[in-house]
Amino acid sequence: MPGIGKTTLAVHAAHRLHDAYPGGRLYVDLHGFDGQAPYDPAEALAVLLHAAGAGGDLPDSLDERAARWREWTARHRVLVVLDNARNAAQVRPLLPGAATCRAIVTSRSRLAGLDGASSLLVEGLSDEEAAALFTRIAGAARVSDDPEALALVIRAADNHPLLLHWFASRFRHRESWTLRHLLDRLAEAADPLDEFDDGELVSAFRFSYTELADPTQKLLRHLALHPGPDITVTAATALVGAPPDGTRIRRGLDDLHDFHLLEEPTPGRYRLHDLTRAFALRMFGRAEPEESRARAAGRLFGHYLTTAHHADLHTHPHRRRLPAGPECTSAYATGFRDADDASAWLARERANLLAVARTAAGEAPAYAALFPHVLAPVLRRWGTWTVTNELYGAAVHALRALGTPYALAQTLIEAADVLAQTAPDEALNCAGEALELFRGLGHPHGCADALFQAGRAHLAAGRGEASLRVLDEALTGYRQVGDREGEAGALNVQGAAFFQAGRHGEALGRVRAILGIYEETGNLLGRIHAQNNLGEFHQSQGQYEEALAHYERSLVLAQRHGGRQELDILDTNMGAVYQATGQTARALACFRRSLESHRAHGDALGEVNTLINLGTMYAETGHTGEALAHFRTAGDVARRIDSGYEYMRALLGVADAHRASGQFTTASQTYEQALTAARRTGSLLGSAQALSGLAHTALDTRRWGPARRHGTRAVALYRRLEAWEEADDLRRRLLEHPEVTGS
Question: How far apart are CA 537 and CA 639, in angstroms?
């Protein structure tokens, strides 16, 4: 039943159970019955994961997000309130993954499909409870002399706690009224919404609404147009078109809050009850001309777009942007002190920005064309890939209609950049169309950008050779236009492709070239990354002194000019060198410091790398259980962020640990999984390592045929990659067994 108090009861219960759930309490409104589109379970999972601090780059699919949620709740004893659910299918993926957690779900439907759930029907108050509630709010002295009228008021409210609260609040503030006068006013206010024909609920809305001053009525009507979950004073001011200082709107919001027509779940952020929104929308249609809706929406779009643009200027000051048109000049935009302030606003307004951008995509082509461009960096971080596709689709459609080929090409480039890791083939299509447009415009710089994005997409799809060919073209383009930063970016992706393919000499050449560019241009952050990459190369070759020297050079620069992420990466890498050189205590300190920071800041890729390093360290020191735990967690996180290469690395670690502990069957099965993952990502080195593991396991169990088959293929791959030491070691062990060689 709407407004019966389900949410209030759930939230109250969550507060009472606070001590039993030290991991925290989380809340999400699923919008099942409030006139807005019900939350897709994948988006609801994104909200929960970000609220839990387990966000970062999110995977696209519902199953992967649900797995990540279950993984997180398995490690945290939490209470989750899933409010206003549409059906059981919406709820199931959101349920925690451990019996130590609890979920409280509210819904207007019975959710019979939730197996194992205990149901509690929230009914109206008893007559005694209703009388006590009304009396407590209105005051005993005002109601004690007419118990019959009080009973009629309770009947008019149908014992509904929300209605009783409204009636009693209005009555308390009208000292000249009697209960009989209240009953008369309720009768006069009858004008129900269609869904509450002849019901008293709408009478209560009408009663409260008529008590509002005209400006406050207008405010309520306009608040109902906001598509997001909550609203700030500034956004409300933009909707109404009031003076930008927001003073009048703030007073109106306070009045609506006092009348219980508006909630303020957190200071300065307001939310309409679903019934209030429905009523206010009806009133808007009756009181406002149709063109006022479009004007209000335009002001709201302008507020969010311009403020997001200002935030992006702080957080990504060197980003190439489309020219800011009139859509980015709202008088209602918010300013920021610095990048941290801007980042905090983007995080707070995430759900509103997505809702407003999606609304603009269907209603306002001029804004639809710009929202994904302005939000591109955060769309990549938020992991809302379905919404991202939708927004870019609307932007591309709008820009085609507007006939702006440069803006269209640039938007396609950004779409490719955002989609490369999750939808590489779609990213490749975007980059290809952008390339044709830029060629038609005679824009060589844009052509280089399009080729660069095509190279990234090929690499993400496991097509390393194609990536290298396209990146060569991008490099030529960047050099022709004199873009040294673009050249360094293309060289960096090429270096990654060479490294993943095991072509280490060529990877080293690319990293050295990048360092030279950054030294020439004075890019200190680039020098930090290049020195680190050089350290990684030498470390992979077992050249630990050279690796540590590069890491230390990078660290000196990072401490002066870098940020948290650079320092965390260096901690992980230096820890690996300490581990390899027998300095276990120093290695463990580095790894733990890095892991704590990566998790605190939602850096999932950094978390995977650190977990793999910890797993390797524990395996080498004989702590197999600890090693397996870290490798498995690394694999879970890698799947969560859809990193096939890191998932392969985690599988190899698991397989090695099983083999070392004598679990040969499990080891072989896991090496097979790693081999599949390596082939999927195009990693020849990973394939060689998995085949080598299969050969060693077969030798351990005296299975000569599989040992010969897998070993021969692994040796051939190692030689192709010029990994002579690995090839010789495996071949030497194979030769120790005549049964394998047939000699």
Answer: 25
CB atoms within 10 A of CB 205: 25
Q: What is the DSSP string of 338-403?
A: SHHHHHHHHHHTHHHHHHHHHHHHHH-HHHHTTHHHHHHHHHHHHT-HHHHHHHHHHHHHHHHHHT
Cβ neighbour number for residue 393 with a 10 Å cutoff: 14
pLDDT of residue 430: 94
Low-confidence ranges of the chain (pLDDT < 50): 1, 190-200
Query: Model-level pTM?
Result: 0.60
pLDDT attached to residue 191: 43
Helix axes of 684-700 and 704-720: crossing angle, nearest 10 degrees: 150
How buried is 9 (Cβ within 10 angstroms: 0-12 exposed, 13-18 middle, 19+ buried)?
middle
pLDDT digits (tens, 9 = 90+) for 149-208: 999 988 877 787 877 887 888 888 888 899 998 888 777 754 434 433 344 456 657 767
> What is the reported pLDDT for 374?
94
**CB-based contact 631:615 (threshold 8 Å):** yes
Nearest to 256 by CA among 201, 225, 217: 217
Contact in structure between 547 and 577 (CB atoms under 8 Å) = yes
What is the C-alpha to C-alpha distance for residues 109 and 414, in angstroms, rounded to an integer? 42
How far is the C-alpha of 222 from the C-alpha of 462, rounded, in Å?
Answer: 50
Separation of CA 22 from chain center: 24
Give the pLDDT confidence score for residue 192 in this predicted structure.
36
CB atoms within 10 A of CB 407: 20
